Amino acid sequence: MIFTVVVLGAPYSSAANSTALRFCRAALEQGHTLKRIFFYGDGVHTGSSLSAPPQDEYKLTEQWQSLIRENQLDAIVCIAAALRRGVLDADEQQRYQKSAANLSQDFTLSGLGQLIEASATSDRTITFGA
Amino acid sequence: MSTLHTVNKSPFTDNCLHSCLLLCTNEDALLLIEDGVYGGTSQSPCAEDIRAKIQLGVSVYALKQDTLARGELQVLEGITLIDDKDFVRLSCEHQCIQSWY
Asked: For B3-100, which CATH superfamily applies?
C-alpha cells in the first residue's frame, strides 16, 4: 500500500512525533511505500538540523533524518508553517536576510499542494495530530 | 466504507474520545494511542460507552507500547492490545483513517 503521513506534533513536545516515526518504520518494515511525509504546524521543528538533545537522550530529529536518508523518503516541511517558526533553508535565509539556515538537507520546504498531490496518489493518508 | 478511528487524547483532558464514540459505526475500528489509552481503562469517563460499542461489534484496540509507557495500564476486557505492525495492518484493512486529536 502507498501511504502519505502527516505529522503535526513537534519533537519532544508531543507524542505524535514519535508515534509517527514508529508508524513509518513499521510500514517500511512490512514492505509498504511512503509516498510522502508532510510536516505541518509545530511538526516543522522536526526538520531543524540544530536540535541538540543531551547525549544520553533519545535523538528524535536524528532518527527522522536517518530514516528519511536511508529510505530516500520524500519529506516535506510546510514552508508557511516553517518560516513562522524559524525553520529556514538557504534560499529563505537569503530572501529574508536572516543570520542562519537550519533546515536539514534531508527535508524540502514546500507548500500544501504537495500534501494534496500525495494524498490524491496514495491509498491511505494518516495524520498524527499534536 | 469502514473507518479506523485513532484517538490520542485522554478523556480526562479532552472530549475527542466522546465525540469519536458518537460517530463510530459497527463496521469501524477504534484504536487508542498515546494518552488516548487512558480512555480504555475502567476509570475512564467513556468506559461504559466503549463497553457498549464492543457489544455492538466495534473492534477496539490500544497500542500496547503506550499502555506500558504509562505504568502498565490495565484496559477493559474486550480491548485488544496491539503493536505498531498491527497498527499498520489496521490502516490497510480500513478504507479511511480518521485521527482524533
From this structure: DsrEFH-like (3.40.1260.10)
